[in-house]
Amino acid sequence: MTNQRSRITLDEAEQRSLLQTARTLQIASIGPDGRPHLVPMWFALDEDGLIVFTTYGSSQKVRNLERDPRITVLVETGDAYNELRGVAIDGTAEVVRDARVTWYTGARIGEKYRGVPWSTTIDASAEPPPTKRVTIRVHPERARSWDHRKIG
Fold it and tell me: Nearest 5°: CA angle at 107, between 42 and 59?
């Protein structure tokens, strides 16, 4: 007999589907005083299936992640209890200060939120414009998920 927790867990395909369609990712890093620093971000999945987002290189979250790369991210959806779905991922953040990577990441995010195919957004042979933004890649270590629609 399985317990209720295992019955409502999302499998890997369900987690990926939720990450592809969810609108906002909650990002938690560790502030300089040890408190959680929580911010919402738009995001996408990169070619390796990792969660990626862009932000200003001088932002508090980047300073936090460069000091301590531990990160927790959360996506959730649903308005009523029996509709709740989500996935929380603990991992390590990689701060990427390569303008080309950030250019591609921005294009992927644009595709997700504006519906413009990322492959037509940029010219792969062109030099990316200078940017103050960086890309954060989330390397997952542990995921917890739930889908209350499975409760029945």
Answer: 45
Query: What's the number of CA atoms in the CB half-sphere (13 Å) around residue 105?
Result: 25
CATH of 4-151, one of 3.10.20.90, 2.30.110.10, 3.30.470.10, 3.40.47.40: 2.30.110.10
Distance in angstroms (rounded) separating the CA atoms of residues 135 and 126: 19
Beta strands in 97-127 (DSSP E): none
| 123: CB partners within 8 A, 6+ apart | none
pTM attached to this predicted model: 0.89
Give the pLDDT confidence of 16-28 residue by residue, as tens digits. 999 999 999 999 9
